[in-house]
């Protein structure tokens, strides 16, 4: 779990920096700088890619976070240990920048799609579509990959 936590923290940190940079470039950039609301798709997609590269069996998940009302959300699940890894849970008032919980221990997460089907859903999420920011995300991916090799 140590490697997962390291990668998740790196992705969170890089996405926070990227969001601040985008807000300076795009006046109506719709991702919240404080809690990363609006960045779950991008962040989870990137986290999943990096976990897989580091031979950690994970899967991208699209579904809903249910608090008072269901909200479309995206996160990563670790296949072997059955954990949720959510690096944008701060948008729901969770204090942990990297939220890790057993899948069966958190009833707030409702799955709609897994894997490629979840990726397909992301393509319709406007600002959440990671493929809209391919070059930026590729650069972040490379920086974190280098840190993982050290």
Q: Can you give a write-up of this model?
A:
- The chain is an alpha+beta fold and 150 residues long.
- The protein has four helices and five strands, in the order H-H-E-E-E-E-E-H-H.
- Helix 1 packs across helix 2, helix 1 runs antiparallel to helix 4 (134-149) and helix 2 runs parallel beside helix 4 (134-149).
- The model has no long low-confidence stretch (mean pLDDT 90).
Keywords:
4 helices, alpha+beta, single chain, 150 residues, 5 strands
Instruction: Kindly state the percentage of residues in helix.
Output: 40-55%
Q: What characteristic shape results from the CA principal axes?
A: globular
> Mind telling me the C-alpha Rg?
14 Å
Task: Classify the secondary structure makeup into a structural class.
Answer: alpha+beta
Query: How many separate domains?
Result: 1
Number of strands: 5
Low-confidence stretches: none
Q: Biggest sheet: strands, sense, closure?
A: 5 strands, antiparallel
First-last Cα distance: 17 Å
Could you state the oligomeric state of the chains shown?
single chain
Question: Total number of helical segments?
Answer: 4
What's the helix and strand layout?
Elements: H1 2-25, H2 40-53, E1 58-66, E2 70-78, E3 83-86, E4 99-102, E5 109-114, H3 115-122, H4 134-149
Antiparallel strand pairs: 1-2, 1-5, 2-3, 3-4
Helix pairs in contact: 1-2, 1-4, 2-4
